[in-house]
Design goal:
The protein is α/β, with parallel strands linked by helices. 37% of the residues lie in helices and 21% in strands. It has 14 helices and 22 strands.
Length: 447
Amino acid sequence: MSVFKAYDIRGVWGKEFNEDTVYRIGYFLPELLNTDHVIVGRDVRESSPVIHDYLTKGITDRGADVWDLGLSTTPMVYWATTHLNAHASVQITASHNPAQYNGLKISRTGALPVGGDSGLKDLEKLVEEGTVNVSEKKGTIKDYSFVKDEYVEYFLPLSKGLEDLKLSIDASNGMANLVVKDILANNSDIHYIYDTFDGTFPNHEPNPLEEKNCRDLEKEVIKNGSDCGVIYDGDADRVIFVDDKGQWIQPDYVTAVIGYYYGKKGRKGNALCDIRTSKSTTDWLEKNGWNCTLWKVGHAFAKVKIREIKGIFGGELAGHYYFQDFGNCDSGILASLLVLHVVKELKEEGRKLSDLLSEIITYENSRETNFKLEDKDGAIKALYEKYAGDAEKVLDFDGYRIEYPDWWFNVRKSNTEPYLRIVAEAKSKEMLKEKMEEISAIIHQFH
């Protein structure tokens, strides 16, 4: 399978891609994006330095300059792209994947993502078939590590007022460690775990969407009597929360919490949600004055759509949250600051985050369930034929979302893994169990 995915470039380093692949990506990138400079940042994975060296060599051999951020969170690269008015940027990261993976997230002017339908396929063809002719005048590598301090300064005003919260934070041995302590420096009651860089991720995989990776944080919240727990993924573009009871919070419910924050600030309008988003969330948002647009899963799609609808913010089931105020990009740090302001306000009212969530959650949810099978298209077709005819509403992008008055489900193929993914919700546990058994039985016919 190619390392050129729908959203980015990603695979097992040394097996699915290597130094030559990365060099050629660097060489052809300035041509693809018509630029004489490329911002480059990297995460702390063990393979990131060598990828950095070959990527920057390719860029400079083409005659373009590298604006080198050094160690960076992925959102810091997005922010730098707009802050510095750059025309191209690359973050070297495999995000939440295990340590043996690595990859590249590419953006163009305005931090717009370069995805499969917006340039990655063209880049893949150049990498496979293009001819390298080293420029007579090579580009230079310029030190832009000062951006980190400017990035921290950008967030400091939003960190004010959070000093009295009791927090537990898991930085996953990843890139959140670069900035989170500086941003929350005025809060003296934070219990950090896994707050050192280690690209082997020895404590847990840097994927907080898997609840097993949040067990230690859940324990910390209870042990420390924290108002909230926060855990970032490997490159800090995603964030997951644990409530005051030590319970993992499904990320699409947090989309409603962020809507609560903006509503209290007097800002309402359009919000973007992915096609898997709970009706608990969309019902709550719409009841509180928001217009919700459902769209395809993935940052390459979300960042374009949120601009199109002029959305104030957006959220995904995977824990990505997008912000108009952040160049329409995703930021785990920004999302966490906004949620912590909600926790602070609730605390002042004598309430807790778990109280607000109990008001938001009105459906029973299956969480995303994966089925590994060859004939994914056949299974999707069978589910459509079974359920679409009598449905109240059918959305036909990114698989299907089929809605009935008291239950719904989404079926879609993973863009990055060999899975068929199902999310279902119903008004009762009994109905959810019944519908998931029906759906599973149909899918199992295609194993």
